[in-house]
Amino acid sequence: MNKLVMNFLVTEGYVEAAEKFRMESGTHPDIDLATITDRMAVKKAQRLIELIGNGKVEESLEFAQEELAPRAEENQSFLEELERTISLLAFEDTSNCPVGELLDISQRLKTASEVNAAVLTSQSHEKDPKLPSLLKMLIWAQNKLDKKAAYPCINDLSNARLEDPTF
């Protein structure tokens, strides 16, 4: 159980909680906790969108040319996304432009999540924590079993206490 909790803390980027949990439980993470801080910094960066959102046209173009364009030469889909993002610069009012959704917070969160998953995968670590999946599986299994048998089950996930079946 401790390994599952540690996996969740590491995967979701809770470095301080992971460190405290390591000290209290003696459970060591599968990954260096310093890399979590780096990963969270990358996840928050999304530099081009931030530059465009702040109206820094020259800095946006310079960053795109120096940092992103070389990568786009090797990847056609990346080039298309870069071109789409740079097109935001053509509009003074980005709320009414055809690609204005790129500046929405929901798009930023989606991008941050994708970056986080890519970094985790590159570090040979799972991109999703195991604990939420296991809890979903537990609920699914209990729902299936409820129709067929009486058994000790966990009705309150926050306590994780087994309750005797009612006959």
From TrEMBL:
<dbReference type="InterPro" id="IPR006594">
    <property type="entry name" value="LisH"/>
</dbReference>
<dbReference type="InterPro" id="IPR013144">
    <property type="entry name" value="CRA_dom"/>
</dbReference>
<dbReference type="Pfam" id="PF08513">
    <property type="entry name" value="LisH"/>
</dbReference>
<protein>
    <recommendedName>
        <fullName>CRA domain-containing protein</fullName>
    </recommendedName>
</protein>
<dbReference type="InterPro" id="IPR024964">
    <property type="entry name" value="CTLH/CRA"/>
</dbReference>
<dbReference type="Pfam" id="PF10607">
    <property type="entry name" value="CTLH"/>
</dbReference>
<dbReference type="InterPro" id="IPR050618">
    <property type="entry name" value="Ubq-SigPath_Reg"/>
</dbReference>
<feature type="domain" description="CRA">
    <location>
        <begin position="55"/>
        <end position="151"/>
    </location>
</feature>
